[in-house]
Amino acid sequence: QVQLVESGGGLVQAGGSLRLSCAASGRSFSRYAMGWFRQAPGLEREFVAAIRWTGGNTYYGDSVKGRFTITRENAKNTVYLQMNSLKPEDTAVYYCAPAPGWGSLATMSAREGYLEVWGQGTLVTVSS
Q: How would you class 34 by CB atoms within 10 Å of its CB: exposed for 0-12, middle for 13-18, buried for 19 or more?
């Protein structure tokens, strides 16, 4: 059974940093792109970042560009999201998901491009 487990969330003050992890088990996603999404209460799930299976290509949502960095370690079947200069509006539950292909930013920022394999998410709360 495929399982994704997100971790690393917590409570942090504005301007602080967190590093999220997404570990996959039950199947290797080393040849899949991986994406991070987030969902704040009452809002739609929002694209945050994506990384190609090689790690050589990345995309970011406009609201996190320059502050967040997505990386991956295929040997560990894990993808990371380093979040710096956090803002209260970054408060959300963060999820990762695999994508079988790679395309434009528009393609990779759409939830439809990802497999419906979601973990429980990890909550990030940024206080002002």
A: buried
For residues 83 and 13, the answer to whether their CB atoms sit within 8 Å is no
Picking from 84, 69, 75, the residue whose alpha carbon sits closest to that of residue 53 is: 75
Token pair for residue 120?
């429980």
Cα radius of gyration (the chain): 13
Token readout for 95 is 């999820």
State how far the Cα of 110 lies from the Cα of 45, in Å rounded to an integer: 10
* Contact residues for 57 (Cβ-Cβ < 8 A; gap 6+): 51, 102
Per-residue pLDDT of the chain in tens (128 residues, 90 and over written 9): 779 999 999 999 999 999 999 999 888 888 899 999 999 999 999 999 999 999 899 999 999 999 999 999 999 999 999 999 999 999 999 999 999 999 999 999 999 999 999 889 999 999 99
